[in-house]
TrEMBL record:
<comment type="subunit">
    <text>Monomer.</text>
</comment>
<dbReference type="InterPro" id="IPR024898">
    <property type="entry name" value="LipM"/>
</dbReference>
<dbReference type="Pfam" id="PF21948">
    <property type="entry name" value="LplA-B_cat"/>
</dbReference>
<dbReference type="InterPro" id="IPR004143">
    <property type="entry name" value="BPL_LPL_catalytic"/>
</dbReference>
<keyword id="KW-0808">Transferase</keyword>
<protein>
    <recommendedName>
        <fullName>Octanoyltransferase LipM</fullName>
        <ecNumber>2.3.1.181</ecNumber>
    </recommendedName>
</protein>
<keyword id="KW-0012">Acyltransferase</keyword>
<dbReference type="InterPro" id="IPR050664">
    <property type="entry name" value="Octanoyltrans_LipM/LipL"/>
</dbReference>
<comment type="function">
    <text>Catalyzes the transfer of endogenously produced octanoic acid from octanoyl-acyl-carrier-protein onto the lipoyl domain of GcvH, an intermediate carrier during protein lipoylation.</text>
</comment>
<dbReference type="GO" id="GO:0009107">
    <property type="term" value="P:lipoate biosynthetic process"/>
</dbReference>
<feature type="site" description="Lowers pKa of active site Cys">
    <location>
        <position position="165"/>
    </location>
</feature>
<dbReference type="GO" id="GO:0033819">
    <property type="term" value="F:lipoyl(octanoyl) transferase activity"/>
</dbReference>
<dbReference type="InterPro" id="IPR045864">
    <property type="entry name" value="aa-tRNA-synth_II/BPL/LPL"/>
</dbReference>
<feature type="active site" description="Acyl-thioester intermediate">
    <location>
        <position position="150"/>
    </location>
</feature>
<dbReference type="GO" id="GO:0009249">
    <property type="term" value="P:protein lipoylation"/>
</dbReference>
<comment type="pathway">
    <text>Protein modification; protein lipoylation via endogenous pathway; protein N(6)-(lipoyl)lysine from octanoyl-[acyl-carrier-protein].</text>
</comment>
<comment type="similarity">
    <text>Belongs to the octanoyltransferase LipM family.</text>
</comment>
Length: 278
């Protein structure tokens, strides 16, 4: 059976506003039938704290620390918790809800898309697998995460290596299209990460930081030889092709497409109304 061809975009390191605007633009273009299903890889300039659509900035985020560390800051159109985008490969997948290979439920579609990430880890000789919340306590944690930190909160079909989370993803469905994007950590600065959130007191902060080390890990902490960004892109591109049984064809954005994205970035994702609305 012939493999379906999807579009592959490597947009490089972009501003937080451009990154979120391009994900939204791809969703819109796909819903309008202008582009095929698309997988995109990207990075962040500057390193950025992104927060979930429903998070409250005043109650959860230490904006002084964000500014002192000259980080970018943006609210995602997807749910989930806060993510520090720094030494990571960020991906997004845009595909129709009606695609024959996409299950109807969010969690099952998440599992299918994440097969591509799972295969990417295998390309790097890491024994990744899906962990499924089984206890009632774990399931309650899905509904009411106690932490504002993404990699500290459990989720369905979480990707783990040696029992620790190695990728964090979030999904939204709009205009008949699934947008799933997420972070694949190459390295992580835990001190910086935990300085960016609000805690009841220092004791709670230190406890959460200790727990985090047991729950999350970056790729290069698991390997004897570090993975470069280019090696990661090759591995996860091949992983998506294998996991989703597709062929990825590289695409460069046109000048008019870039202008459209920049306009959306400036008029929506760079505004205080969007980023501080909760």
């Amino acid at each position: 059976m012939a493999k379906e061809t999807w579009r592959y975009i490597d947009s490089g390191n972009q501003s937080p506003f451009f990154n979120m605007a391009l994900d939204e633009a791809l969703l819109d273009w796909h819903s309008e039938g202008k582009i095929p299903p698309t997988i995109r890889f990207y990075g962040w300039n500057p390193p950025t704290l992104s927060i979930g659509y429903f998070q409250k900035v005043d109650k959860e985020i230490n904006m002084d620390a964000v500014n002192q560390n000259t980080l970018g800051f943006v609210r995602r159109p997807t749910g989930g918790r806060g993510v520090l985008h720094d030494k990571e490969l960020t991906y997004s997948v845009i595909v129709s809800e009606e695609h024959p290979e996409m299950p109807k439920t969010v969690t099952e579609a998440y599992r299918v898309i994440s097969e591509g990430i799972l295969e990417g880890f295998k390309q790097l000789d890491l024994d990744a697998y899906f962990a499924i919340p089984r206890t009632e306590e774990e399931k309650d944690g899905l509904k009411n995460p106690r932490s504002a930190v993404c990699f500290d909160a459990p989720s369905w079909y979480e990707l783990v290596v040696e029992g620790r989370k190695v990728a964090g993803s979030a999904q939204t469905r709009q205009k008949g299209v699934i947008l799933q994007h997420g972070s694949i950590l190459l390295d992580i600065d835990e001190d910086l990460l935990f300085s960016l959130f609000v805690y009841p007191n220092d004791r709670v902060k230190e406890r959460m930081k200790r727990n985090f080390k047991n729950k999350a890990v970056a790729i290069n902490a698991l390997r004897k030889t570090p993975v470069s960004m280019e090696e990661a892109k090759i591995a996860f591109k091949e992983g998506f092709e294998k996991g989703l049984n597709i062929h990825l064809e590289r695409y460069e954005l046109s000048e008019s497409e870039i202008q459209y994205v920049e306009k959306l970035a400036n008029e929506k994702y760079a505004t205080k109304e969007w980023n501080f609305k909760r």
